[in-house]
Amino acid sequence: MKTLRSVLKGSLVGCIVAIITLLTIDSVRAYTNPARHLSIPERPVQALTINSSPDDVLALMLDSDQMWDTLEAEYQLTDFHSITGMSIKETQRFWLANRGEWARMEIDGENPSTFVRNATSIYRENRAKNIYSQEKIPGSVKYEEFNPREALRNNSNTIILHPFGKALPTGYYDFLFPTGIAQCLIINQATGLEDVKIIGEEIIAGRKAIIISRMPKNHLYWVDAQTGIILRAQFIGEAEHWQIQFEIQRIVFGEKIPESTFQFIPSKGVRRVTLSEYQSQDK
Amino acid sequence: MNKKMIVPALISFLIILTLGLPISGYAATGAWNYVNETNATYTSKSGPYTNVTTTGYPSTNMHAYKSTSREYGQPVNSMRWKCNMSTTTNYNYHLYIAIPFNTGTLDGTYRYYARNTVSAENFYYYLNQENYANVFVYLGWTQGTGGSTNCYVETNNIKYDGDVGIREFWIDHMVFWPNLSTTHPVKTWQ
To answer: DSSP secondary structure string, B21-64?
Structure first.
């Protein structure tokens, strides 16, 4: 009986010591893990300069959508093949109002298309295929719950894309809504995976831009000093010359955009199709 | 403490430490508590993918899937990640994706189509994979009762914007998380 009691007592003591040990290990690891202690930089009160810190640049990019209400922009996408020397150019035009809730986008190139989003619907038109679709705005595109700073504080490994940006039919919306890139860089800088450096400044389309490098991805971003929007981006990868460049040609902030811009009128001769049929042909 | 207590104390200490350490380690470091491809809530895959590599993120949990790289003018291909679970009531399925960190050949733009039984909440998004690495990217939610026929995420290496070079398409993990709220669940990840 005494032996059994001793064994039980011993087991209990062992359990308690093990639990205390685990809790101690947890606390130490939690304290020392850099991703758990993200320093989320505050937005600078003044426009960026060459003397700003990389954190200032990331903070402005994080809150970039707070810095404008309407904008009109024209970007040129150039995709350059370093071996063949072949390149493709495409123009993407944006009209954004209510911080991007209302949007119109027109893409030229091989697959010319129009995208319109207003208070109730999203319209897509492919002028090469002569089709268009209309859909109600899905709940995911609502802005109310978007708070990138709180999201970073709650979970330092997940980034939240801007709801108005991600619905645009381009892989380059991140440069107009750079909050997702900023979140990714804040996290990856904290863990030492990526490094951001300020390497210069330049005037692009009449706007002052601070140039930052993103290594080892080997990307360069020209960040608008006042709004945090990316005016030019170059993906260099492992090549010696950039392979993709997305560059602003013209940008205007704060001018009233006529409401008719966000009304969709189908082009002559196009037929309406379901969204899934539209997407299956939009390749 | 007498000698008879020391052996059982040591054994129970070691057992609990052995069982608890990996869990506490993951929780403390914030490593992903993945709902991965073997989990009941998600998912089976169909469609072509070239290989399953061991270069994924994180290093302790390597499951990166590389879809067929695409060159200019080549056909698109898509992978369909199906839900396994179905319910009698509607849930909001929150979509997270993780892109492995990779340098070198540039990544392309993936088109994600998240579908469930409430069609009004389905969505298409284009994501330039080159911009994100080593993090989960939250894309949004769909709504419905799940099931492998009407609930899935389709990834398509559409290269929407006129790429001319070879572009790679990676996916590390994808999570389509059923939840009653439209607010994405966060706490559970750590």
So the answer is: HHHHHHHHHT------TTBTTB-EEES---EEES--SSTTS--E
